[in-house]
Amino acid sequence: MSLVNLAHFASHVKNCTRVNISATSVPFSRLHLQVALQLYKEGFISSVQKGSTSGPDIKPVDITPDNVSTRRLWLGLKYRNNQPVLRDFSLISKPGRRVNLTNTEVKALASGLTVRFIRPLQPAECMFIKTDEDEVVEIQEAAKRHLSGLVLCRVK
Amino acid sequence: MGKGNLRFGGKSGILPKPRPIFKRNPIRLPTESELQQEAQAEQGYVEGIPEPVKSGFKFPRAPVSKPVVTVQERIVKTIDQQAAKVANIDTSKLSQDEIWQLKKDEIRRAHLRDAYLIEEKRLARIDELKAKQEAKQREEKALEKVYEESTATKLTLPTIDSYLKGPLVRRRTAEEEELLHEQRVLNRMQADLKYRERKAIDVLDLYHAASQFITTEKELEQAITDAFEVNVDNFDKEMEVEAKLAGRTYAISHQSKNEAIIIDHALGELNGQAGLESIENALDGELEKLRMKAQTASIE
Q1: Model confidence pLDDT, tens digit, residues A18-46
Q2: Domain harbouring A96, CATH code
Q3: Exposed, middle or buried: residue A141 (CB in 10 Å: 0-12, 13-18, 19+)?
Q4: B residues 39-98 lying closer than 8 A (beta carbon) to A
């Protein structure tokens, strides 16, 4: 898991939404796929597709050691009234400052409180947490399931 | 702290917390949950921290469980045994006050017995309610852990979820590994062959060039004379003498050189001499076979 790559992912997606691009690709990795899936579930992006550097796959392609370097994850970006749905996407945990929360802290954060330096959630804002079982979940779901873990990023 | 109801924040009508009747010893064995709590409890001083000096006393690290005294044992000890002591007293010899005192004691004992039994029932009821509450909490906690996604999510996201279940990259099979290994060996051998061929051509080139080397004094003198004498016959008509002398070159001046290169490539020669391929053929006897074949064919 690389927070550096996730930071690149976040800024790339944000940059793309600012110049009204319809689809973009990010390197294919498990963490990126997990975060993209959560973004899709929360309605920030319109599609998630596997693909290569030349575009999304038309036929399913296996990822092998021979083609792994060219594999990409294609994300369909969303706009409403000419405004991007995804306005901001930033990391909370940084490579040099990882923020691990207990389940009590997760619940507090989910219920709108400030936890340590993390500002409370705003309306239409999401936070993603990486649990100890290497699963990326939205903070509300994590609070429901009494999960604890590393706070990755916040999206609005 | 203050006096009277000041102790209760100046509020009247608040009764103090009733003192427990069975205070010193528990009346039943601890339940499982109580045992668990007790096992986690820590007290006293950690090893290495100096303890306060208290003679005849050691600060225990875990709570020391007190012996259980059941209500029946308590009744026997505090009521029945006391009653037995005064049962044989001859009341006829006692004064009215003493008799009244005995009666009062008896009444007190009867009330104490009732109080014990009622308290036992009350505590049993509390235990029962607590057990029920704990069971309910356990059930709720177990239900919370089994979190299910909504039907919409289940129907829309099975594909991407399935990517995450297994490994992302499919490893090479044993056959593919072998094929890759063979390919790598082939590539290496091809590169090696190319290098060796290049080296052989260079050596052959050097061999051909060696025939032009100056080895005698006469040849050296001739070479010096050639170098310093301008042979006008060698100039092409199309070329200007000034241009030649100024060192300017024209495509036409390379004509013979280009022709030589083309001929070399077409005939497999090296600077007009025998090329590597023809030498290899001669060494193999391939050229000889070909010649023989041609001769026999012409005779026939």
Answers
A1: 999 999 999 999 999 999 999 998 999 98
A2: 3.30.1490.10
A3: middle
A4: none
How many CA atoms within 13 Å lie on the side-chain side of B209?
Answer: 6
Is residue A79 domain-shared with residue A140, that is, in the same domain?
A: no
Q: Which of A128, A105, A103, A104 is nearest to A116 (CA)?
A: A105
pLDDT in tens, B257-288: 888 888 888 877 877 788 888 888 888 887 78
Q: What is the dihedral of CA B246, B247, B251, B255, to 10 degrees?
A: 120
Q: Do B169 and A68 touch (CB under 8 A)?
A: yes
Three-state DSSP state, B196 = helix
Domain with A120, as residue range(s), is: 92-155
* Cβ separation B160–A48 shorter than 8 A: yes
Verify that A69 and A126 share a domain, yes or no. no
Query: Which CATH number does the domain housing residue A58 bear?
Result: 3.30.1370.30
Looking at the complex, does the CB of residue A18 fall below 8 Å from at least one CB of chain B? no
Q: Is B145 on the interface with A (CB under 8 A)?
A: yes
Tell me which residue range forms the domain holding B131. 18-45+60-147
Name residue, tokens 């330096």.
A117
The Cα–Cα gap between B53 and B76 comes to 39
Contact A27, A50 (CB under 8 A): no
